[in-house]
Amino acid sequence: MSDAGTRPVRTVFLGSGGFAVPILEALLSAPEVELVGVVSAPDRPSGRHRSVASTPVAARARVLGFPLLQPGRIRDPDAIAAFAELQPELGVLADYGRIVPPAILDLPAHGILNLHPSLLPRHRGASPIPATILAGDDETGVSLIRMDAGLDSGPVIATTRWPLTGAELAPDLEARAAEAGADLLRRSLQGWIDGSLPAIPQDDAAASLTRPLGRHDGRLDPSQSAAALERQVRAYQPWPGSHLETSIGRIAIWRATVGDARPEGVAPGRLAALGDSLALAAMDRWLVLDEVQVAAGRRMSGPDFLRGRGRALISSAGGMPAG
Q: pLDDT tens, position by position, for the chain (323 residues)?
């Protein structure tokens, strides 16, 4: 493909979130590439005090001393020109969070590779890890693709996969996917650069699409099954979280388990005491609330909450409605 077999390939990394940091580190130790720059999202105000914060990738790039580009719009001519000045022969992208225009995709001779935390074409788009847990998938993985102008639709170069237990939390699954993606990249770089590793087109007919999550997605809907709600609690950590609106305010739900079948006389949405536990009546069964947090309060076990403020939510008529 070039004289890349005799010298490292000039490479630019594009990434923002925590998932991308182990992949950036993998490039640092890869003899096939020379990292010449990093592209990340701009610093933004964050937190209660609106202090300006860098993305995890930008913070790491500053520590490492690499040239750092943080364009507000990567498709702007100035951003494209700055990218071109790095003279990249290869790009690697992970968790960047921006649409990369064709003018940048077409610049490196070896293209831009994307590490996506799902088994493509399943779960393309912005939230593949929550979608994997929500769907109750029995396996997941990371896909290495050559980017094209579509949304995670480029041909697949390599994948790695592993089974799921059905108890994964989104942050833990993301951390495992990041390490697996870093290893997959290390194992695939030489084959991609020397042309021995082909890219196989995806089956678009089998594709599923995910979307960005908003705060409103965190509401637990008791018209769903208890199993679906339990998966939501695991999938939506840390963002947007899962919550109930109650007579004492919003309650965040951090851990939950599927309980017994809901009695026919109890409507979905009712909160009740099941022994020493607080439970929500879902469409088919009880959802036992194992760890909760009231606004401005600390996280506590469901039984501890029930012994305190939780009693205000329970009545002899079957509890207070929540939603």
A: 345 457 999 999 999 999 999 999 999 999 999 999 999 999 988 766 678 899 999 999 999 999 999 999 999 999 999 999 999 999 999 999 999 999 999 999 999 999 999 999 999 999 999 999 999 999 999 999 999 999 999 999 999 999 999 999 999 999 999 999 999 999 999 999 999 999 999 999 999 999 999 999 999 999 999 999 999 999 999 999 999 999 888 999 999 999 999 998 899 999 999 888 899 999 999 999 999 999 889 999 999 999 887 777 775 334 555 66
Structure-block tokens of residue 313: 């939510």
Residue 71's closest CA among 103, 44, 45, 42? 42
- Together in a domain, 192 and 252: no
Q: What is the CA radius of gyration of the chain?
A: 23
- Domain range for 202 is 9-210
- Is there a domain that residue 145 lies in? yes
The answer to the question of residue 296 being in a domain is yes
pTM of the model: 0.93
- Rounded distance between C-alpha atoms, residue 130 and residue 272, angstroms: 28
